[in-house]
Known about the structure:
alpha/beta; nine-stranded mixed β-sheet; about 30% helix; binds 5'-O-[hydroxy(phenylacetyl)phosphoryl]adenosine; four-stranded antiparallel β-sheet; single chain; 2 domains; Rossmann fold
Amino acid sequence: xxxxxxxxxxxxxxxxxxxxxxxxxxxxxxxxxxxxxxxxxxxxxxxxxxxxxxxxxxxxxxxxxxxxxxxxxxxxxxxxxxxxxxxxxxxxxxxxxxxxxxxxxxxxxxxxxxxxxxxxxxxxxxxxxxxxxxxxxxxxxxxxxxxxxxxxxxxxxxxxxxxxxxxxxxxxxxxxxxxxxxxxxxxxxxxxxxxxxxxxxxxxxxxxxxxxxxxxxxxxxxxxxxxxxxxxxxxxxxxxxxxxxxxxxxxxxxxxxxxxxxxxxxxxxxxxxxxxxxxxxxxxxxxxxxxxxxxxxxxxxxxxxxxxxxxxxxxxxxxxxxxxxxxxxxxxxxxxxxxxxxxxxxxxxxxxxxxxxxxxxxxxxxxxxxxxxxxxxxxxxxxxxxxxxxxxxxxxxxxxxxxxxxxxxxxxxxxxxxxxxxxxxxxx
Length: 428
Ligand code: DLL
């Protein structure tokens, strides 16, 4: 399959490292001058930007965390005045305060180029019809892919906010060849097609580029079999740029990280020590070309490992293993990112419940189902049924309002849930 940018994607490691160091030094100087958070961080660590003389020195710089970003909202982490910023997007703050991120014109160009690489690694060409079924808006997924696909010259269908039946109709009528969405949604499409008796042979679809949430090899097989396509994984996060950070090639053996724009490190989340290739730990990313919103040693919360061996596709860029877990309590349900601590907070606010609950995510069907079992205070549980119904409805209403999809709430007897915050997954 074609490689979008051979100059960078096939760069020899010593040349790549030289480029990374030069770009790192430049970005450190910029953030030291323009972002008080970074100036304080480096001053407190007694590091001057010029002390970073090699890539190994990067590990001397303290980490940046999501909390730092939340404390500096909305524009405290920007390295340029707002008049230089041409776009604002944000993290998917479904259950947590979203983080606003900004892009200069150059940032948008880089981002577009990086997503074009993801698309080309999946075999997409100008002859393809790309259906983008992500939500257009503050979420980076849709616009990121939209620009990338247009850069390649493909025909883009901006297809958000349509239900599965209508998405399938668009796919059939407009002759879609490439699907871009979450794995959850792709699986849902398979299910709906099966129910409608539509055979994959009726669709000219050949590739799905899926990301924004963890998914397993079993799910990949189901999607590939159900749609008669190749399904590839791609990874990114708004704080770093959005999609375009890393993507699988046709080898399906790890996701190539765009190292000419981002320096990856893996750390032990407990000791914070940098780990060698092959060891699983938290991914830490430093952006080395971003102008508006540079991130230095950002702790992503995503658990993965790195492999620097050259891939059989020819790309020299390091590969990260697929992400299956996070360091925090974020869970992914129906393509939505939910922090279980936020569920906890809502339950704490509803009178008549005990602080014991259990989340059960049923992943056996196409769309994940969430059931929340909540212990009821002893003085209420044996009370009248009407009161219990009202309590159950109130919890359900508040949780559904926060998450944006329907869930099931079960009220259970006091002392029947032993563990605090026990999440059980009924997985594939
Ligand atoms: O999800 C960006 C994106 C859009 C990536 C479209 C790929 C495709 P956020 O909403 O900020 O950005 O969420 C970022 O989602 O830290 C991971 O926990 C998770 N995530 C993203 N891609 C993957 C993936 C976008 N391929 C957070 N596998 C990240 C597992 C993923 N988790």
